[in-house]
């Protein structure tokens, strides 16, 4: 049985490292427009909506024909913003997919891969990718993940997990298949409501990773492996890199 899925792109104006990030120019289009146009190419989504807290982003999305809604400027996370956007919809949806608004190179096939995990029983799902470089492996900005044989997450961490006992650190990457988290989430509608009502947890506070709050409260996060590399634009340096990439086409 097919599931009706809403795609939500949180687009917050404030950013400590790159203010007004959704509106920055990337090869003649704004970042949020590029993300939106990639998302609507997904075969799995019934609708895509930008959830913002700023009138300028709201008007901009309307100007290129996108669906957009205004949400609170007090949300602590994109997940909370996604829930408000879902609650504002007049249609009903079985699942909501949170598509990062600062990944202009997101592939529609990645959204479809995540959507393929949503069978009605799946509570939460996300994507992971095999780590290819030592820079990724040891960066605290790259979240690592371990999972069981049923492709359910066991733990997410900014540290390298697992620790390889009796293996020299220089040989870790060639001795084990490590995976990193790709920050796109799918939530079953009832679960999305439930997790926004949970209090900050100890592990979440320690690692600054909201998915640990869900797991500490007994929710299961299914993972699917993608081989597509993504790029998050979070700093002025990232922005220049993205512009160089776009200039190559």
Write the layout of secondary structure elements.
Blueprint: E1 5-11, E2 25-26, E3 29-30, H1 31-39, E4 47-52, H2 55-63, E5 68-70, H3 78-88, E6 95-98, H4 108-115, E7 124-130, H5 134-138, E8 144-147, E9 153-157, H6 172-175, E10 179-188, H7 189-195, H8 202-207, H9 211-216, E11 221-225, H10 236-247
Parallel strand pairs: 1-4, 1-6, 4-5, 7-11
Antiparallel strand pairs: 2-3, 6-10, 7-10, 8-9, 8-10
Give an overview in words:
This protein has 249 residues and is an alpha/beta fold. It has one domain (5-244): Spore Coat Polysaccharide Biosynthesis Protein SpsA, Chain A (Alpha-Beta Complex). It has helices at 31-39, 55-63, 78-88, 108-115, 134-138, 172-175, 189-195, 202-207, 211-216, 236-247, and strands at 5-11, 25-26, 29-30, 47-52, 68-70, 95-98, 124-130, 144-147, 153-157, 179-188, 221-225. The strands form two sheets. Strands 1, 4, 5, 6, 7, 8, 9, 10 and 11 form a nine-stranded mixed β-sheet that branches. The protein has a two-stranded antiparallel sheet with strand order 2-3. The longest helix has 12 residues, at 236-247. The model has no long low-confidence stretch (mean pLDDT 95).
Mean pLDDT: 95
- CATH homology-level superfamily: Spore Coat Polysaccharide Biosynthesis Protein SpsA, Chain A
Total number of β-strand segments? 11
- Tell me which CATH architecture applies here: Alpha-Beta Complex
Shape: globular
Instruction: Name the beta content range.
Output: 15-25%
Tell me the number of structural domains.
Answer: 1
Largest sheet: 9 strands, mixed
Q: What gyration radius follows from the Cα positions, in whole Å? A: 18 Å
Might you state the CATH topology name? Spore Coat Polysaccharide Biosynthesis Protein SpsA, Chain A
What's the helical proportion of residues? Answer: 25-40%
N-end to C-end Cα span: 40 Å
What is the name of the CATH class? Alpha Beta
